Amino acid sequence: MALPKLKKDGLVASPSAFQGFLDALDVVGSWEWDVGRDSLVADALVATLFSVDPDRAEAGTPLREFVSGIHVDDRKRVTRQIGQCARVGGSYVAEYRVCSADGQIRWVLARGRFDLAASGEPLRGRGIIIDITPARMSEEAYVSSDMFAAAHPLERAAERCLAAKKAVSEVGDTHLQLLADMLLLEVGRRLAKLEDQSRRKLMN
């Protein structure tokens, strides 16, 4: 499923128009980071949420461009968490704010995983970003990296879905691509719902 491009010089200031654009992309975006080359490739949704030019994100751009899109009050915590995960490998889950391309503050749920080289150095990272702004509009910020067990089945499913989506794109079958996108979207929605339930339980 091809994602529409949103050029920075064509942004619409209206939040409702921007929300319509995000809705057209669904709510789940994906990214992959080649640590050695410092080249992060992301789809249009992730680029738009982090206020990065979609063409640059598609071609691969340094991580710092996406870090700049994280809200200043969350940036240090999030980069520290991602850095720790990159050093030791494994997965992380984080909830934080981003400054999206329309100038609005939006909430995202991020799930990522890092692989290490045989030498023990960080090799690559990949993951998904879920726009959870509607669920957070009337709530106070609450973040916990321990909301999911590291081996939760939905996390493993999301990782497999990303791998399947990448493999299917190489086949070029549009019907299979649509099915892979639909499955990834549904798994992402379930992850967001699970996170919301876990957060509410911890707040009560």
From TrEMBL:
Source superkingdom: Bacteria
Catalytic activity, EC: 2.7.13.3
Catalytic activity of the protein: ATP + protein L-histidine = ADP + protein N-phospho-L-histidine
Any one GO molecular function term: protein histidine kinase activity
Pfam (any one): PAS_3
PROSITE patterns according to UniProt: PAC
Alphabetical list of Gene3D superfamilies matching this protein: 2.10.70.100, PAS domain
Keyword Kinase: yes
InterPro entries (alphabetical): PAS, PAS-assoc_C, PAS-like_dom_sf, PAS_fold_3, Sensor_kinase/Photoreceptor
Keyword annotations of the record: Kinase, Phosphoprotein, Transferase
Domain spans labelled PAC: 92-144
Protein name listed in UniProt: histidine kinase
